[in-house]
Amino acid sequence: MTTLADPAIAPRRKGSTDFIQKIALGIAILLFALALLAPWIVPFGPLDQSLLSRLRPPLGFERFATGHYAGTDELGRDVLSRSLYGMRLTLALAFAGALIGLLIGGTLGLVAGLRRGWVEDGIMALVDMQIAIPFTLVALLILSLLGSNLTVLVLVLGIAGWEQYARIVRAEVRRLSSLPFIEAAWTAGAGPVYIACRHVLPNLISPLVVQFTLALSNIVILESTLSFLGLGVQPPQPSLGSMVGLGRDYMPTAPWIVLVPAALIVALTFSVQIMGDWLRDRADVRLRDR
Predict the structure, then answer these.
(1) What CA–CA distance (Å, rounded) separates 241 from 249?
(2) Phi and psi at residue 199, in whole multiples of 5°?
(3) What tens-digit pLDDT sequence spans the chain (290 residues)?
(4) Contact 78, 44 (CB under 8 A)
(5) Nearest CA to 157 among 174, 173, 147, 143?
(6) For 88, how many CA atoms within 13 A lie in the half-sphere containing its CB?
(7) 10 Å Cβ neighbour count for 158?
(8) In a designed cystine with 163, which of 25, 77, 121, 130 is the match (CB 3.0 to 4.6 A)?
(9) Range 233-249 burial, b when 16+ CB lie within 10 A, else e
(10) C-alpha angle with apex 84: 80 to 87, nearest 5 degrees?
């Protein structure tokens, strides 16, 4: 009788995991390449309309319009072109939001780890407040009050996950602070800025890269949700979430309008999440050696 810990089945389990990770990595690279090269590979412009070709099905169905391989929407716009441009914008917003969250959370976590006392207590209280309140509701409130332009949207996405960075950085800084080389630096009279830049930050790169990758997929979902509700990217500019939101009324007659961008959202979040898990396993020595 074999068990989960049986060495005989461990290689098969690890091989299966590696295969999934390779598939996810390939999907992620393909999607990033398509988004990056969208202006040069799309057959039509994302805003080009042709009412004579409206609601045409994808390739392989009757009434297929030549060149519109994924069909057209209610205004005759090419669904494939809009989806790739929408993925391009969604990824740009996700990267900007994750970077802002990294800067805010990383800075506050670093300060909380190096400066104990009331400074640390105040920062961690903000972290607890962010965790306690469902951020989607906060985002809806902010966008309703300030409007849904791209600048406000990027700022909202940026503060979506800063608390995760703050918690990770604070925990790592406190762990590193107890190590002999940090104590030696304090004893030698080094200031907090020198210690942070010279000794602490180089040891934070690995966990921050992992968290950045995981946050990227979460922000993609958040942006898609806000755009689906009409508070994110505004028409006629396409994003994956706004395309799903605008196309839901045509689901019974033209489901491809929704299915194509929805499939890209699923593939994007799945592949990036698996990549984040793989990076976390590689960064953690205990998990890497299993």
Answers:
(1) 14
(2) -115, -35
(3) 444 444 444 444 556 667 888 888 899 999 999 999 999 999 899 999 988 889 999 988 888 888 899 999 999 999 999 999 999 999 999 999 999 999 999 999 888 887 777 888 899 999 999 888 888 888 988 988 888 788 899 999 999 889 999 999 888 888 877 777 777 776 776 666 777 777 677 778 888 888 898 899 899 999 999 999 888 888 888 999 999 998 988 999 999 999 999 999 999 999 988 888 777 777 654 444 45
(4) yes
(5) 143
(6) 19
(7) 21
(8) 130
(9) beeeebbbbbbbbbbee
(10) 135
Place of tokens 């506050």: 108
